[in-house]
Design goal:
Largest sheet: 7 strands, parallel
Strand order of the largest sheet: 3-2-1-4-5-6-7
Shape: globular
Radius of gyration: 17 Å
Mean pLDDT: 91
Structural class: alpha/beta
Number of strands: 7
Helix content: 40-55%
Low-confidence stretches: none
């Protein structure tokens, strides 16, 4: 495990109430950063704060719907009010509803609003704060391996929104690098999270069945794998990495 020194830095993590977002927040705090947790799940968000504080870290929970402009603006304002700055943005928040061509349009719109519009809003207001500070920063977005390797069982809204996140990442990187802000994204594969287990349960599929023919390892990924990658992308170790969509998938995308 690499050693990071993020003392005095501030990381904003959306979707931090559980799963990958919680693991990222805990890892940032372990490395010395102040963690700002954003989520609609208040109980989960407060639990993440509790876990961080019990481990000796500093954290703040801000109830946030990332698809709402005012919520994201308030998130950044609260981070600055409490900790004075924003250095890193980790945009993990997402929803995954079971959608096909027969699903309601409102459900499709909700998935795209959270996953794509939410990522856009977070990039926008995180970057604006970093630009005001004039000290650069790093933003890590979250796409999905399903945006590249799909099949007919995957959900329309989720796959299309996560494809959009990859494009947003590249465009934001082009525009923000001049300000010393590096933008990249993670492409998680089969990572063991409450969201993925709930989706599999709805479809009557076990985790073991999913990964058997999916990853080269035949195993499910851990949230800690994702957290390590996020911190690396925010650190000086990856200072020449810009606009990359980085797969963390056990080889799933080459296992066709």
């Amino acid at each position: 495990m690499l050693s990071y020194d993020f003392n005095g830095k501030v990381a904003v993590i959306t979707g931090g109430s559980s799963g990958m977002g919680r693991a990222v927040a805990q890892r940032f705090a372990q490395a010395g950063a102040n963690a700002v947790i954003a989520d609609m799940d208040r109980n989960g968000g407060l639990e993440t704060v509790k876990l961080i504080e019990e481990a000796g870290g500093e954290a703040l929970f801000v109830p946030t719907d990332v698809s709402v402009t005012e919520d994201v603006q308030n998130l950044i304002a609260k981070a600055v009010e409490c900790f004075g700055r924003v250095d890193y943005g980790c945009n993990t928040a997402a929803v995954n509803l079971e959608l096909d061509e027969d699903s309601g349009e409102d459900e499709f719109d909700r998935v795209v609003a959270v996953n794509l519009r939410g990522t856009y809003l977070c990039i926008k207001y995180q970057a604006q704060q970093m630009q005001r500070q004039g000290t650069g920063g790093a933003i890590v977005n979250f796409s999905s391996a399903t945006a590249i390797r799909s099949n007919a069982t995957f959900q329309n809204g989720y796959v299309s929104s996560k494809s959009g996140v990859m494009s947003l990442t590249r465009l934001a990187a082009m525009r923000l690098t001049k300000d010393g802000i590096r933008v990249n994204s993670i492409i998680p594969g089969a990572i063991d999270t409450p969201m993925i287990r709930a989706g599999l349960e709805r479809r009557g599929i076990t985790v073991e069945e999913m990964v058997a023919n999916y990853s080269l390892t035949g195993t499910v990924g851990k949230v800690e794998d994702i957290a390590e990658a996020v911190l690396w992308l925010c650190s000086e170790y990856s200072s020449y990495i810009i606009g990359v969509n980085l797969p963390i998938d056990g080889g799933a995308l080459i296992n066709h």
